[in-house]
Design brief:
The protein has 333 residues and is α/β, with parallel strands linked by helices. Helix content is 34%, strand content 12%. Helix 2 packs parallel to helix 9 (285-308), helix 6 (200-209) crosses helix 7 and helix 7 (222-229) runs parallel beside helix 8 (255-262). The chain is globular, with a radius of gyration of 21 Å.
Length: 333
């Protein structure tokens, strides 16, 4: 068994040579700078249904051409993908484009998630442009909700099974539509990072409103993730590298600990230091395709890091997408 030095400089035997290691751990231990032992009390006890503690997601895949780039690069770099998500919205895609994306992801058993409806700064409301960002990026008025419902119905009729939501009322409405059979029963709803919950109480509320996975902001601490996991087993999404408009945080070296604390967790391979591309159009084609390709490479970097640390086990099987049994508020009859 390998020997390392503890904080007193004494040589000790590592009884678990195959256990995951933390970044820099052997070298720091040899210098008497070993980190405190991890506590099993702060680890998440939850997994995805069918096994596995983490899945992968490539976000900001804005159309069929970007999707083709992502799939080709993922094959070249051997990056497993559970979910592809898009940010511009269902309403920014033609039926033919949606169908092409559904077919391409379906052939590879990858979940496709499209954003619903007009929101926030994409309508005439000015409050989201104020210093206080009042109103946020939510659906404004009846027409805003109606647009999201229209998108949801259209997308699911074309075969989309996952919808992104950035409004609590829209989430509850779509969940009620799912319960009522207006939307397919296996449709899943993903809460956007634009309104991501930052505490366990709000996380539980979103779950009860119908969320099947929730994108939390990437500035949450490890302790915050543990707090959330004490009240909810709903899958969590987190940018390992966040876009600049969501903070630009890069948490690559924390991936193993994010999984340990936050499972079941979607690792989102975002990209900092790049301009926004929403809503996408062909005028942004070159930027969108190049950033799509780089997001996959960022995923390879994260997976390589997990492998070097012996923490790349427990990935959920490819092709899995459902969240398992979750808590819900009673819906009106």
């Amino acid at each position: 068994m390998p020997e390392i030095s503890n904080n007193e400089g004494q040589l000790v035997t590592d009884a678990s040579p195959t256990a995951p290691r933390r970044p820099g751990e052997p070298a720091l231990a040899a210098l008497g700078l070993a980190a405190p032992a991890l506590s099993p009390d702060d680890a998440s006890p939850h997994t995805f249904p069918g096994g596995g503690r983490w899945r992968t997601e490539v976000p900001s895949v804005e159309g069929p051409e970007a999707l083709a780039v992502v799939l080709k690069e993922a094959s070249r770099l051997d990056v497993p993908i559970h979910r592809i998500s898009q940010g511009s919205g269902v309403w920014m895609l033609t039926d033919a484009e949606i169908t092409e994306m559904v077919e391409a992801t379906g052939e590879r058993d990858i979940e496709l998630c499209l954003f619903t409806g007009p929101r926030g700064i994409w309508d005439i409301g000015a409050s989201a442009r104020t210093d206080s960002r009042g109103g946020g990026l939510r659906a404004r008025g009846h027409d805003g909700v109606a647009g999201c419902v229209e998108d949801a119905v259209r997308a699911t009729e074309l075969g989309v099974k996952c919808l992104l939501v950035a409004d609590e009322g829209v989430l509850w409405t779509l969940h009620r539509a799912r319960v009522a059979g207006i939307l397919p029963a296996d449709t899943t709803f993903k809460v956007s990072a634009l309104i991501g919950p930052v505490n366990p109480a709000s996380y539980a509320v979103y779950e009860n409103l119908g969320a099947d996975s929730l994108n939390v902001p990437s500035d949450l601490t490890l302790d915050h993730l543990t707090e959330i996991r004490r009240v909810s087993a709903a899958p969590m999404d987190m940018y390992i590298e966040a876009p600049d408009d969501l903070g630009g945080y890069i948490r690559m070296y924390e991936v193993a600990e994010l999984i340990r604390r936050g499972a079941p967790l979607y690792l989102k391979f975002g990209l900092s230091k790049t301009p926004g591309i929403y809503p996408y159009g062909h005028h942004l084609r070159d930027l969108t395709l190049s950033t799509a390709r780089e997001r996959v490479r960022r995923g390879r970097l994260a997976l390589d890091l997990l492998a070097r640390h012996g923490a790349d086990g427990d990935m959920a099987p490819l092709g899995t997408r459902l969240p398992g049994a979750l808590n819900r508020f009673d819906t009106p009859s």
